[in-house]
Amino acid sequence: MTTPQHAAIDTNVLVALVDSRDHWHASAHALREALQGRGADLVYFDPVLNEAISVLARRAQEQGRSSQFADLLDTLTHQVPPEAITWLSAETQRLYSQVIALVRNTSGKLNFHDALIALGCQELGIAIIASFDRDLDQVTWLTRVETPDAVVTAFKPAPVD
Q: What is the pLDDT of residues 54-74, one digit of tens each?
């Protein structure tokens, strides 16, 4: 029996899952289904929830649908209850200099949260991240998946000796 692989879920995928009006909504659902079909344990880091809530609130306000924000927030907290969150914020102080170095090494293409998430993946041995953000391709220890086909490739079984 094989141990399931873990896959981190990035903010843009989570927001697309929650907001049916998001451009990536259908793609995010197909991506999540492909990951679950491969038996992946989905990992939701607290900075992702932090960003997702902020994006959903801003988007609802900017699109004149503030009355829908409570429903969006309910959908988010239903999809990712507190017990499903992997907490990195407690590690931010310890990882701070590494986060800054990673942001610097990518010339700012990775923001602070993306760098923290990438380092969290590295520390926890998570090699796959579901994201539509191509900037994460610069992170050598992560394989970014954005389509069901990419999931199949990323989860190919190891060769038998």
A: 999 999 999 999 999 999 999
pTM of the model: 0.91
Q: Can you give the residue ranges of every domain in the chain?
A: 6-87+126-152
User: What kind of fold does domain 6-87+126-152 have according to CATH?
Assistant: Rossmann fold (3.40.50)
Strand order in the sheet with 6-9: 85-86, 41-45, 6-9, 128-130, 143-145
For residue 156, pLDDT beyond 90: no
- Report the residue count for the chain: 161
